[in-house]
Each structure stands twice: as structure tokens, then as C-alpha cells.
Automatic annotation (TrEMBL):
Pfam family, one: DUF7869
Highest taxon listed in the record's lineage: Eukaryota
Gene source species: Acanthoscelides obtectus (Bean weevil)
Domain DUF7869: 133-275
The protein's name in its UniProt record: DUF7869 domain-containing protein
Length: 385
């Protein structure tokens, strides 16, 4: 979190998060991974090894670094093996998924847009490793947010579309607990498996923080390159959708437009039909940050199997309440458009003269509230460190 990093800096006057967001936005700084991403934990441990003169500490830090890097390498190798197996076995499938950096809308060439808030368009990309086909689930912020319910809804949509001969699917993602690694996603897997006609096993494996480069990252880079190369003006979220459809030479990206009829409230299942528990079946406390793999079996719905390391055996965490297993039919999450902030609406009105008047009504009719305007990329970190 950028604000958390700001708070950790010594010798400065602390301001509120709201004020910090306001100032940060005026700088128009984007939150983007560098082209050659480095691992914060690796960098920190290397620096500790360099700076300490204590041999015991140096050995301790080196061991921690070696262990961390081995775990990262092990999961990269595991992904390669899963991809290999699923290409030769039609009953299995391996995919990766990730949210792209927020796409500003409208995206115009005039310099005034540099200083103004824009509407965010979201893209969750699922990369099918069996055939290198990409599926981009896209929507804008007045349709839905981009938290766990929204990510889960996109993945649920994808799982319902897989070929009928697939019985086991393995998904890879980063370790962001706010979006990918949480009870909401597990509730979605329960609901999906209960009614899926052929799918029997869902595995979800989380790459080690700092070492999470996936096929979907390359896909997102292709989208950015396409926009810069064509200099396409983006007046409306659907302009982004169309640009993405034109991305990918061998396999053009497939876009799924996510309207509100496709977003479900898995969080409510956890408060009604399911139960979040703090201890596993052995009585040990359960922490999401430690999880590296989860598995859901259709023959034992309501129970999540999990690992904290690649060589461990699966342990169990039950989400069941007493009595019969729930129906697991999630409700729709939204009943109307999601309001944007009044400040953002005001900024969007200033951009109207620079886009086609065909789209003016779209922006004029966006509902508003008085909430603080927070960049979605600031609200969630990419990984758990």
C-alpha cells in the first residue's frame, strides 16, 4: 500500500489518508509494475546480507533468502508441469488469471486529462494455457467494483464455459488476499462445483509474492502496446473492449462484457449458508497469508483442502454449518449503477468537449455520491508479503 509506505517514512508530518489521496491524484502518478519487476523480499534480504558484519545473522538471512527463492522456483516449475500435463490430458485444464492495471476512460490526447479524474475500466484476463487463448472479462466502475466478489464472478463465468470433458482445472494467480486468496473465492468454487455438470476438482495455486510473473502479464503488455501503437482514442469503455478484441495475432483476445446480471454476492453466502472458521480440522489457527494451494472436491463440498508448502500434505478447513449442505445459490450483488464520486463526475464533465457528443449522455447520467475518490490500484496490493 502506498499510504502505508508513506506512514513508515521517518521525520515528516503525517496527513490523513483522504488528504494523501487528494495530493497523490494531482500528481497523476500511476501504480504500475516496472518492466523488470524485482522482489521486495529478495532485495531486502540481499541488503541485510551485505550490511551485516555478524556471521550468524548473515547465514540466517542467506538461509531465508535461499528458502524463499527455492519456494518461488518450485511453484514456477509446478506451473510448467501442470501446463504440460493438461495439454496431453483433455480431462484437465490449466489457466492463469490476473487483473490488469485500471484503464482510464475516456483516454484522450489533450493535456488536460493529465490533471483530471477519469472513469476506470477494468479487465480480468484469464489465459488458457492449453491453447493460449485469452478471455478478457471487462466492465467499468459504475457497473461494479473490483474486489473478491467481482473477481469470483468473472472466474465463475469462465468455469461455466469450459469444455464438457474437463473434470479438473488448476488456476494460478498472485497472492492478493483482497481479490484472489480469500473465503469469497472459496464460496464461489463451492457454488460453481455444486451445479457444474462435469467439473469435479478445482485447484487454485498461488505464486510466491515477488515472483508472480504469468502469461496474463504478457497479455496486458500486449494490450498497452496495441493502444500506444494505434493511438486509438478511447471515448467510452466499449472502445477499450473493442481494442482488446483486436489484440493478439494468432489468437485474438475474446472479450466478455460483464454487466450487472453477471456479478454475484459470494460474501453473503459466508454469512448465511456457509461459515468462516478460524481453525482447521486439527485445531490449528488458519491464516490466509500462509496458503500456497487450495483444492475443492465436488464429493466433499463445504470443505477446503489447503497446503502451505509444495511438499506438504493437504489439510482441511470446513466452511459447513450444522445440518444439511446449503443450496449455494448466490444472489446478484447489484440492483443499480454504482455511484462514482462527485469530484470525479465534475472532472468527467470537463472532458466532454474532447470526446464525441454521442457519449455525453453516458457520462452525464452516471450517479454520484460524496465519498472520497480513491484509486483502485491504491486500495489493494498485488501481493501478500
Amino acid at each position: 500500500m502506498v499510504y502505508s509506505q508513506y506512514l513508515s517514512e521517518p521525520d515528516h508530518v503525517v496527513i490523513s489518508r483522504t488528504k494523501f489521496e487528494e495530493i497523490f491524484h494531482t500528481l497523476n502518478i500511476g501504480i504500475k509494475k516496472p518492466s523488470k519487476d524485482t522482489c521486495g523480499k529478495c532485495d531486502c534480504l540481499r541488503m541485510k546480507i551485505t550490511l551485516t558484519s555478524n556471521i550468524e545473522e548473515k547465514l540466517k538471512y542467506q538461509h531465508e533468502l535461499d528458502t524463499h527463492q527455492k519456494q518461488a522456483d518450485d511453484y514456477y516449475k509446478l506451473k510448467v508441469e501442470d501446463k504440460r500435463l493438461s495439454k496431453i490430458d483433455p480431462t484437465t485444464k490449466t489457466v492463469t488469471f490476473d487483473l490488469q492495471q485500471c484503464l482510464p476512460t475516456p483516454k484522450v490526447s489533450t493535456g488536460i486529462s493529465f490533471y483530471l479524474r477519469q472513469l476506470w475500466t477494468f479487465n480480468l484476463t484469464v489465459h488458457d494455457c492449453d491453447n493460449d487463448q485469452d478471455y478478457c472479462f471487462m466492465w467499468h466502475e459504475a457497473i461494479a467494483g473490483r474486489g473478491a466478489n467481482q473477481v469470483g464472478s468473472c472466474i465463475h463465468q469462465f468455469l461455466n464455459s469450459i469444455p464438457s470433458d474437463v473434470e479438473k482445472i488448476t488456476l494460478y494467480s498472485d497472492s492478493c488476499t483482497g481479490q484472489n486468496k480469500n473465503a469469497h473465492i472459496v464460496a464461489m468454487y463451492f457454488a460453481c462445483l455444486k451445479y457444474h455438470p462435469t467439473l469435479k476438482i478445482i485447484q487454485h495455486k498461488f505464486l510466491v509474492p515477488g515472483h508472480t510473473h504469468m502469461e496474463s502479464d504478457t497479455d496486458h503488455a500486449l494490450i498497452e502496446k496495441k493502444q500506444k501503437k494505434t493511438e486509438t482514442q478511447i471515448d467510452h469503455p466499449r472502445d477499450w473492449y473493442q481494442l482488446v478484441r483486436c489484440t493478439g495475432k494468432k489468437h485474438p483476445f475474446k472479450v466478455v462484457e460483464m454487466d450487472q446480471s453477471k456479478f454475484f454476492n459470494y460474501a453473503k453466502l459466508l454469512k448465511t449458508e456457509l461459515q468462516v472458521k478460524k481453525k482447521d480440522e486439527t485445531g490449528n489457527l488458519f491464516y490466509w497469508r500462509d496458503i500456497r494451494e487450495i483444492m475443492i472436491d465436488k464429493n466433499n463440498l463445504g470443505v477446503m483442502y489447503f497446503k502451505t508448502g509444495i511438499n506438504e500434505s493437504y489439510r482441511c478447513l470446513s466452511f459447513r454449518k450444522r445440518g444439511s449442505l446449503a443450496k449455494l445459490i448466490p444472489e446478484l450483488q447489484y440492483k443499480g449503477l454504482v455511484p462514482i464520486t462527485a469530484k470525479k463526475k465534475d472532472n468527467l464533465m470537463k472532458l466532454l468537449p474532447y470526446i464525441s457528443d454521442v457519449f455525453w449522455d453516458f457520462y452525464t447520467n452516471l450517479p454520484t455520491n460524496q465519498a472520497d475518490d480513491i484509486h483502485p490500484d491504491l486500495e489493494s496490493s498485488d501481493e501478500d508479503e
